[in-house]
Amino acid sequence: MSRKTILKKKNSLAQLKDHLDLMKKELGYTTSKIKSLEKTQKQSEWENIDYVDGKSINELRYQERKLYEKISSLQKEIKKSRSKTLLITELSLLPVLVLLILVSGIGTNVIDSSANENSFKTRHIIENLRGDTVDTWKSWRLVGTSMNVNIINARGIPGEQIDVITNAIISEVSLQVDDSITHKGPVGSSSTYFGGWAGALKSISNNDSRFSIPTEFNVIKSFEGEGQVIITLSNLRDSDGYTGYTKSIVDGNEILKSFITIYGVSNLTDEELATIVRHEFGHALGLGHSTAPEDLMAPTIDMTVPYISECNVLAIKDLYNGIQGSTVCEK
């Protein structure tokens, strides 16, 4: 495969990304027009008497639905294109690797008696090629941006651990992490991570979204089952070895209630407990798992950077704009 072909593939991927950005901008504009007409209709007894740019609210809703479908299709196409580009790049490097092997003499039948006296060092580098995704599932359909979270405490669990759990939800602390740590970029470039979901969600709350994104979390402690998200703390070990479990009750595409269980709480460090809560609360908000092993939402949690990533936030943004399936990470 020639270098020209590889560049052509990369250019095609760039065009897809540009098209996706345009579609998202058009979707945002269409959604804002629908909201404007909805406010107008509340003051009117008749439907479709108001128009924006010559289109009725029903026409705009149809356009919005078609944009959702196009964006979802483009995201899948980008994911496939990135996989093909990676494969082509790997194949193009094969002749170079073969040449290096022949020049170095590896694999020949000639035995160098001095070779046994030397040790050999190798280096293994894994680089993230911006092809990772975070799956999205269902979303809440809140009236407003407030959500009640009930923590049901197991007997004997100290109040300090309750504070750790609470902070993993309501904290607005953000931090910059060097991209080289997660192999997402060179030394010196960085990405923003969040210590709590409140801060992460507030970072996108200014953007118009189809459904309200929760940004205010009222944490209560009751055994009566109040709250939209119920967190149960247990000192018992799960029979299958899980440290956290989330179950959500849904109606169609709407989450009605979520139940989180944290197992073996007394055996967890504060950092481990906070990380598990962030992960499970991500599920409660509607996220699935990430394909990036170092991401908070990976199936097996890696404690290297145990915080909410930009990709997690981007996935929430897509989900609450009605785009379900998966979100391609920017890094």
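^ that was protein a. below is b, sequence first then the tokens
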Amino acid sequence: MDLILQLLFTGIGIGAVYALVALGFVLIFRATNVVNFAQGEFSMVAAFVMVVLSVDLGWPYWVSFLLSLCAMALVGAVFNLGVYYPLRHRSFLPVIIATIGASIFLANSVLALYGPQPQVLQGWFDTPGIQLGPVYLDSQYLLIIAVTIVLVAFQYWFFEHTLLGKKLQATSQDKEMASLLGIPVSAMIMLTFVYSALLGGIAGILVAPILFVSIQMGATIALKAFAATIIGGFGDVAGAIIGGLALGVIETFGAAYVSVPYKDGFAFLVLVLFLIFRPQGLFGERVAEKA
């Protein structure tokens, strides 16, 4: 039981990172009806920016964190203007290919500027963690879980109780009708890309002290988050959160009880099972079209 509780805590911590990135997938999909496959690279870029500012330049951690978020907001805005906006009137396929191309561009740009060597980023707290009964609560995992709870609560409040949030929801539901009602659709989509880049950046910075900061971390996180999005029900916010947490727990228990080298495969095994038996996901609705 002690081991189960420890693994559950660790799995929820890792799953919270997947949930944050999955939220970015969902927000972009609901606003533009396309999948942003560069979402994981936002996490990687933010982690490397954090390494440059806090490790290489030696700036205070909180200053580096705020500047990294500013950099990610800029990346989200540039991404919207350079990748999505020129193709906004095209079908979803060219936009998806453009996001894949942007993902490759970001990864290779960081590789050219910083090199392939993985980097180490220290955590926010000097205290490694606390012992609560039989469970050791790592401080970084606690921070990840706490930040995820705060962001999810903020997102619920923002979308349900603010005028700007309702405008974003209207834009995601029907862009043409939102435009007729006087809502600046382009500005709302821009804001969505900026916010999704911030979510990905926060996830990358939070998980960086646990993993090595490397070029491959973005693709790994993105694949897990994409799987979580499908498992939860594509386009559903609650599904993205629960799917991310579930994947984190599944891969943690799989690594402990089955095989560590194949821990990344358990998430995709669950994904395949969902695609076969429940393709609409946990919270998705089955949609049928008449011939």
